[in-house]
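Example (one chain per record):
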Amino acid sequence: MKPIDWKKVGKGTLFVAGNFAAAALVIGLLLWGLTSYLRSYTHHGVEESVPDIHGMVVGEAEHILALQELKIEVIDSTYSDKVPFGTIVEQDPTPESHVKQGRTIYVTVNASGKRQIIMPDLHDISYRQAETTLGGIGLVVDEEYDYEPSEYRDLVLDIKDEEGLSIEPGEKIAVGTKVRLVVGFGRGTEEVEVPSVIGMTYQEARSTLLNYRLTVGAVNYDEEEIPEDELLEGEELPKYVYRQIPQEGTIVIEGEPVTLRLSSDIEKAATDKGDEDEENWF
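Predicted structure:
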């Protein structure tokens, strides 16, 4: 067996060990450099105290935050008549919190006007159900009601604003508005003369009949083919009353329903003679 040359072995070991040491040094330097870069990039250990920006407008708050290398973003709006419009009412993180530079401060501002909602159609439902619905969408229902004769008791005939004007379904109204319900109490005992609602839209006819202490009965619409190229997308032609029963001038008991027939052809209001029997309308 050939004897081991320990001198050669020692030199080889030293060479390998030297390479490992050099590699370890290079890796260590790379890790140190990367860590230093990340610390600098993420502002490690550098924090800012969040200023109190409540009551400021967004532009003013943006300038102040920029001085501390902070950003701002509006994420919501609310409404209050107790603070100026357009000012900040909430912020996250809260004042005096410590955050890193570059952090975004999220804010809620006071809107310049009340949020608008669309009035739902609550006609002919119980006044209790109407109260619940109106309260749920942010309106205030007056504890006092207006009562009108109607075919049925305790159903909603109309909804009015504080000035006594009717609020039609689909109409926009500000949250927090106080409204009053017009509720039916059944048929009355006094006689009234039926007005003409020919040529009116359904809503106009309905308001007119209510003013005469009458109600709308059955309503039928003519089915008419309208060329698509004559209508804009989503557009609907208005429809007008061209026949009513009872006719104008008839004496009835208050609360009596008036049956209507409508068409998008306004000319029918002027030309229809109303000779057709009511039973043939539907």
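Caption: The chain is about 25% helix and 30% strand.
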